Structure formats: structure tokens, C-alpha cells
């Protein structure tokens, strides 16, 4: 069975601080995908990034960066110079990558990030 | 935007009544999913579809049924709503590259 753990329930930072959201996963599959989604106070789910299990390169997109380490089964998300608009709940998710029946996502319980001015 | 709508967006109903939620996509994607979101649980998969009339159960399927008679529509039915089904329901579609895009959600309150 797959499992995603986001141990940090809530994080509060002051604007311009850097913050890292942790994600640890468990799977027996050799091929899988990892995702991060953002859920702002308005409630929608916004896709941020997808990473497949064969690509361990870190990725940077503006103030966002992701560190994927298969050795520790972690896919951590760092926001540099946080802003108030980054306040949201962030979800890490894992999929089985079985195309014949679709890619079912297993979500972590989310980390609520509050960025104070 | 992935072209996904959900209806209704909000609904209040009473225990024991049937409820149907609709997910509509304009992208012609093969895969569609229903999740529920509850505090402390993140999102959990209820049912999913991999084609017209092709559906299967997810992690929390008890008390729910689904139907997909057209590519663009995926219906979630609560045959007899219970208070434990009070939740926010999200529909998702699989675009290319296995990324799921989500609809705006439906808030359901069962009294």
C-alpha cells in the first residue's frame, strides 16, 4: 500500500523567510510519480509540480524549489523569500503510474502554511 | 484551466436522501476521478473512471456509486446520504503526462 506523510501540520513564518515543507512517501512500485498541489484559502487545488521516479534532479521554478531523494523517500518543497500570497495548504501526493486504469493519487494530510506580514 | 466544472457547488441535504454530484469536462480526457476532502485526511479517492462505462472503486467507495455514460460527464451518487458523507468533493481529470487537474469542488452538508 502506498502512503504519503506530511508530518508538519501547520507552519507559520514571517514574510521573506525561507520555508521547507516535508514529504515522505512509501511505495513498492519502481515507477511512480510525485506531486505537489497548493490549496489557497479560496479552496481550489492548484497543480505545482510532477516528478517521476526516474528523475532525481532538483527543480527550481522562481521562488519554489523541490528536492527529490529516493534514498530517503522524500520529496521536499522549499519556498524562498516567502510572501503572504504563499499562505495555503500544500499537499504532497503519490501515484501508481498504472496507465491502464488511470493514475490514482494518494495524498498526504497537508501542511498549512501561514505567512505573516 | 483544465475545463472542469462541478455542480452543484454547494448543497445541503438531509440524512437518507439521495444526492448526485456532477463533474463535467470539456477536455475529452479519458480518466476522471472523484475524491473527498476531510480535515486530517487530505484527499481520498472514492471512485474513478478510465473510459465510458468503465469505472472502479477507490479507497473510500462504501456508500457511493458512479456512472459515466459520456466522456465528458462523471456522476457521483450518494444513494442514501449520511452525516459522515459531509465533505468537500473534488472531481479530477487526467491530462497528458499523468497530471491530475481538479475541479472547483462541491461542499456537501448532510444534516
β-strand percent of chain B reads over 45%
Oligomer classification = heterodimer
- What structural class do you assign from the helix and strand content of chain A? mainly beta
Radius of gyration of chain A: 14 Å
Please provide the ordered H/E string of secondary-structure elements of chain A. Answer: EEEEEEEEEEEE
Largest interface: A-B, 25 and 27 residues
- Helix segment count of chain A? 0
Q: What is the N-to-C succession of helices and strands of chain B? A: EEEEEEEEEEE
Uncertain runs of chain B are none
How does the SSE layout of this entry go?
The complex is a heterodimer of chains A (117) and B (111).
Chain A: E1 3-5, E2 10-14, E3 19-21, E4 24-26, E5 33-39, E6 46-52, E7 59-61, E8 64-69, E9 74-79, E10 88-95, E11 105-107, E12 111-116
Parallel strand pairs in A: 2-12
Antiparallel strand pairs in A: 1-4, 3-9, 5-6, 5-10, 7-8, 8-9, 10-11, 10-12
Chain B: E1 4-7, E2 10-13, E3 19-25, E4 32-38, E5 42-51, E6 54-57, E7 64-70, E8 73-78, E9 87-94, E10 100-102, E11 106-110
Amino acid at each position: 500500500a502506498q502512503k504519503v506523510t506530511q508530518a508538519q501540520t501547520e507552519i507559520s513564518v514571517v514574510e521573506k523567510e525561507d520555508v521547507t515543507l516535508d514529504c515522505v512517501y512509501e511505495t513498492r512500485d519502481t515507477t511512480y510519480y510525485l506531486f505537489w498541489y497548493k490549496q489557497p484559502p479560496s479552496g481550489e487545488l492548484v497543480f505545482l509540480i510532477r516528478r517521476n521516479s526516474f528523475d532525481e534532479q532538483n527543480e527550481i521554478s522562481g521562488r519554489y524549489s523541490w528536492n527529490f531523494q529516493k534514498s530517503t523517500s522524500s520529496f521536499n518543497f522549499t519556498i524562498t523569500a516567502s510572501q503572504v500570497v504563499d499562505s495555503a495548504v500544500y499537499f504532497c501526493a503519490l501515484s501508481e503510474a498504472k496507465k491502464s486504469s488511470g493514475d490514482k493519487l494518494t495524498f498526504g494530510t497537508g501542511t498549512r502554511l501561514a505567512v505573516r506580514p | 484551466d483544465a475545463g472542469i466544472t462541478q455542480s452543484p457547488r454547494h448543497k445541503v441535504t438531509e440524512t437518507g436522501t439521495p444526492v448526485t454530484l456532477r463533474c463535467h469536462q470539456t477536455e475529452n480526457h479519458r480518466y476522471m476521478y472523484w475524491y473527498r476532502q476531510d480535515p486530517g485526511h487530505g484527499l481520498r479517492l472514492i471512485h474513478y473512471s478510465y473510459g465510458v462505462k468503465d469505472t472502479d472503486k477507490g479507497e473510500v467507495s462504501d456508500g457511493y456509486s458512479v456512472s459515466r455514460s459520456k466522456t465528458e460527464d462523471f456522476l457521483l451518487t450518494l444513494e442514501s446520504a449520511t452525516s459522515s458523507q459531509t465533505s468537500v468533493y473534488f472531481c479530477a481529470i487526467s491530462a497528458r503526462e499523468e497530471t491530475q487537474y481538479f475541479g472547483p469542488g462541491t461542499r456537501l452538508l448532510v444534516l
